[in-house]
Amino acid sequence: MTQPIIDVDHVTKEFVLGEPPSLRKTAANLLRRVTGRPVDVPAPFKALDDVSFQVAPGEVLGIIGHNGAGKSTLLKILARISEPTKGAVRVRGRVAPLIEVGAGLMPDMTGRENVFLNASILGMKKDEIRRRFDEIVDFAEIAEFVDTPVKRYSSGMKVKLGFSIATSVASEVLIVDEVLAVGDLAFQQKCIERMEKLMRGEGRTVLIVGHNIRQIQRICSRVMLMDHGHISMDGLPNEVCSVFYAEAQRRNLSRRPAADGEITATRSSNDITVRDALFLNADNEPIDAIGMHQPLQIRVEFETHRTLTDLDVVVGLQTSDFVHVIAITSTEASASHTFDARRHVITCQIPDLPLRPGSYSLRVMFANKYRQQLWSAENIKGLSVTAGDFDINKIPRSGLIDVPARWSIESRERETPMTLHVDAASGDTAELAPTR
Q1: Full residue range of the structural domain in which residue 332 is found
Q2: Could you read off the pLDDT of 364-408 as tens digits, one per residue?
Q3: Closest Cα to residue 180, out of 169, 167, 171?
Q4: CATH of the domain at 303
Q5: 410 and 349 co-located in one domain
């Protein structure tokens, strides 16, 4: 059995909340101890509470959870920045931490001087730094500013330089905390490509903490979900991230206060009040879950307080991280018309819901003919999409939309081309037939 490169054994980390005790309070507590009376000490806050796990060499572990779950505290203990209150941590190998990247740069020193200083602190020899200097500077995209004091750099330039230095250090373990969102989109792609090279090409063990769950889901081989200092789930990225998305959706929906008989709007005018919004199945029954490729109805009940001409109603579905995956407008069906001052019910029928399994929520928007929003709201109601009649093991783990398709597979044997037709929706396979 392969020995784990990281072994976290019943680790607890406690902090005392509030201001440090005054001299008077410290003296009073000392007197209480001497006289055998109970000491007035606030209960400690457990950022980590009896956490245990192991990481195998070459594994890419993503750590996710809400703010305050203990993710960054755990990474700081693994990077030896902080010590646990209880328990033990064993890391077999050299560690390169990417925590608060750029924070260690000296503002009065130039970029060149900071490269040598920070790389030395991380364990690189001077000859190795000289050999890799141009590569570090080029990756950070600061060649023309390398002899300028870092205090004149933008915040993005500092983080780029810090990331470039840290990922250039040869190490067995790489610890990453919220740094995959460095710089602009083009540089973020460079960061992801470098991280994947370190993980796949060099076989490094990597621990990543981040709030970009889709990124973590894509590049990690295993994901751990933390909640209030505990590990609540540890397993395959797709399964753990799906649980996180469902929990995030519940949090989003619970934060939406609803007035009596009225849906609270994100943006509104005095012209419209939305009374209700429902998901319905083909039998007109209210639902909160539906199978993939099954018919879905979205019904919105609203009231107009004056006559509105050419009113456009837009309904849509979004993920819990606010990716808008479906938006349907009534103008596409020539359904926009004049609504006089009364209550109305409008229904959007989707005969074949193309979303893959996951947690989604409803968004609704009303606009006038000038595309000005009169009323809009997100996270109105939650909808869970399941595999339904489909085999969940045959559904790709990536992607949000399931598109029916036909495949054509051509096999060549003895100079006679053969074609195999496969219907992706039904799985039916046609007979082999010669092609010309």
Answers
A1: 267-386
A2: 999 988 888 999 999 999 999 999 999 988 888 888 999 988 999
A3: 167
A4: 2.70.50.60
A5: no
